[in-house]
């Protein structure tokens, strides 16, 4: 599939569904209710007053066809019932070009939801965000971790690569 066609498809479906990512400061119970269809809780562990909830992304037939083997999960860190951090791991699958484009969509959803950033209002602004995140993801996958911050928003998104080539996104305060 041509990259420009895939990008157009992704842009047209971007933000159509309820985001399954957590907003820093959100109550964990509200988050779990909101993501019940998109994510499945796999593990919960508490240590030193912090609880980590690990979720896997539910299989989607469209994604599975476009990028066989694409998948991932989210870990949410909670203190006193409120989300204080989150991370996402994305495995790009067997078609890495398509997997990267799908990862752009997940990264945008993740960042906007986690930081409370409004979705761009125009196609041009959204296209600019997609281009920016495509660069961030490509740099991270090339071995150069990236930090994304937005003016007037607290928190940052860190994007890096694991030893097995998966993509890691982390949202942290400040």
Share in β-strands = 25-35%
Sheet having the most strands: 7 strands, antiparallel
* Number of beta-strand segments: 7
SSE ordering: HHEEHEEHHEEE
Low-pLDDT parts are: 7-20
| Strands side by side in the biggest sheet | 1-2-3-4-7-6-5
Secondary structure class reads alpha+beta
Detailed description of the structure:
The chain is an alpha+beta fold and 174 residues long. It has 5 helices and 7 strands; from the N terminus they run ααββαββααβββ. It has helices at 3-13, 28-34, 61-66, 96-115, 123-141, and strands spanning 39-47, 50-57, 71-79, 82-91, 146-148, 156-161, 167-172. A 7-stranded antiparallel β-sheet has the order 1-2-3-4-7-6-5. Strand 1 and strand 2 form a beta hairpin. Helix 1 runs parallel beside helix 4 and helix 4 (96-115) crosses helix 5. The chain is globular, with a radius of gyration of 15 Å. The N and C termini lie far apart (39 Å).
SSE layout:
Layout: H1 3-13, H2 28-34, E1 39-47, E2 50-57, H3 61-66, E3 71-79, E4 82-91, H4 96-115, H5 123-141, E5 146-148, E6 156-161, E7 167-172
Antiparallel strand pairs: 1-2, 2-3, 3-4, 4-7, 5-6, 6-7
Helix pairs in contact: 1-4, 4-5
Summary of the model, kept short:
This protein has helices at about 5-15, 30-35, 60-65, 95-115, 125-140, and strands at about 40-45, 50-55, 70-80, 80-90, 145-150, 155-160, 165-170. The protein is α+β, with helices and mostly antiparallel strands and about 170 residues long. A seven-stranded antiparallel β-sheet has the order 1-2-3-4-7-6-5.
């Amino acid at each position: 599939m041509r990259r420009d066609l895939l990008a157009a498809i992704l842009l047209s479906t971007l933000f159509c569904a309820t985001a399954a990512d957590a907003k820093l400061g959100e109550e964990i119970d509200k988050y779990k209710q909101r993501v019940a269809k998109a994510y499945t809780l796999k593990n919960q562990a508490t240590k030193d007053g912090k609880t980590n909830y690990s979720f896997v992304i539910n299989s989607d037939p469209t994604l599975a066809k476009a990028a066989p083997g694409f998948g991932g999960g989210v870990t949410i860190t909670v203190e006193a019932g409120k989300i204080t951090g989150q991370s996402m791991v994305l495995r790009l699958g067997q078609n890495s070009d398509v997997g990267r484009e799908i990862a752009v969509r997940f990264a945008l959803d993740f960042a906007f939801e986690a930081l409370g950033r409004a979705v761009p209002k125009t196609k041009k602004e959204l296209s600019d965000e997609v281009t920016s995140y495509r660069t961030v993801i490509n740099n991270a996958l090339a071995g150069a971790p990236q930090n994304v911050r937005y003016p007037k928003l607290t928190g940052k998104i860190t994007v890096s690569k694991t030893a097995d080539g998966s993509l890691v996104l982390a949202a942290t305060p400040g």
